[in-house]
Fold this protein.
Amino acid sequence: MARCSVCGRPAVYVDRAGGVAFCEKHFLEYFDRKVRRTIRRFRLFRPRERIVVAVSGGKDSLALLHYLVRLSRRVPGWEVKALLVDEGIKGYREYTIKRFERVAGELGVEYRIVRFRDELGYTLDEIVRLGAERGLPYKPCTYCGVFRRYLMNKAAREMGATVVATGHNLDDIVQTYLMNVLGNDWEKVARLGPVSGPASHPRFVRKVKPFYEVLEKETTLYAVLHGLYDGFEECPYAPLGERWEIRRLINRLEEQRPGTKYSLLRSLLNALEILRRAGVAGDGEVRSCAICGEPSAHPVCRACLLRIELGILELSEEQLEKLPREAREMVLHALRLREKRRRRASGGAASPADRGRGDSGGAG
Amino acid sequence: MAVRVRILGRGERLVEYRPGMRVIDVLRELGLLSNEYVVSRNGRVVAEDEEVSDGDELVLYPVVSGG
Ligand SMILES: [Zn+2]
Ligand SMILES: [Zn+2]
């Protein structure tokens, strides 16, 4: 039996890359050291912060909430709250919300639940159905990712957040990295740092990833040891696509060559530095959406455009007239697309040029 | 006899017990990777090289899946 490298008690975790093993107590110390090092190294938090933890009710985000609430008790200038975006996926979200509310109650942390239904008028299930009826080429994860990011930023700001922390771990990051390398998409790679931004938009809240250097196995173990992992639900829309295969591939490599994931992360950090020096910016210019005023990379934000395409946001003639030219053209283009799809949905074959615009949300 | 394996969210499996068997052997028997599961043996979290006994119950917590 493996024994703790520090105290000799039975091990709960073997770090094969580092050649050490830990008992429960010393694993938790190791975990804490590791996350605090990430926070320091990448300057994730300042001495005074109002931190909002974005939670889904899954193990990683609950582990992050649990960890940061405890850490904040030692940092007088920090305040931690939690935010859950309920997209309304039946047979899935209700269970993770239950677990989230139990954990938040135990931790005594203030929280807010924001619902697609209330904010957009429709649940994700309804949006997916609407999109299919209207012949939109997007996957469920696209709607979910776009609206989730949109509402997350908006709600966190309303909660007074100075920073939003998300539960992404090392595995998530290196999977996305490899996928974007295979896709030769270096602008997306440039967005994979531990801090998003620095977007200097008054409505943009900085996003940070405190588990950036922590393996998924380690966040899971943290969650199990603290009773945060008592059930397993899978999103019914979770794509068994490319990410799944990449994850398998990386995990197989890691099994044969412990340390592969850390190598990939070091590779990413080097790539980020090279991209920064080459002027490849991940975040680019940030402006305000001409319709809703939220931060956006384009004259009209993706959330507003998607709502127009879905037909759940209508602009009056007058509103349309008032938009700046670039924004108006984007909206008119979306409306033309909508009309074309509507005609196609009611008979007639799709032309090849109209296909292939589908994209995926990625880890949001 | 056998080792009972409960995979969270994915039901139960039985693995035939062999003397000297370790957690990692049980996982291999099921075609699973050890870095994709946290394992508890009779209610206590254990490392992959822990030996199992006949009649043990293992709970496997999937590491994969987001959130
Ligand atoms: Zn120890
Ligand atoms: Zn907008």
In short: The first helix of chain A runs from residue 24 to 41. The CA atoms of residues 60 and 219 of chain A lie 6 Å apart.
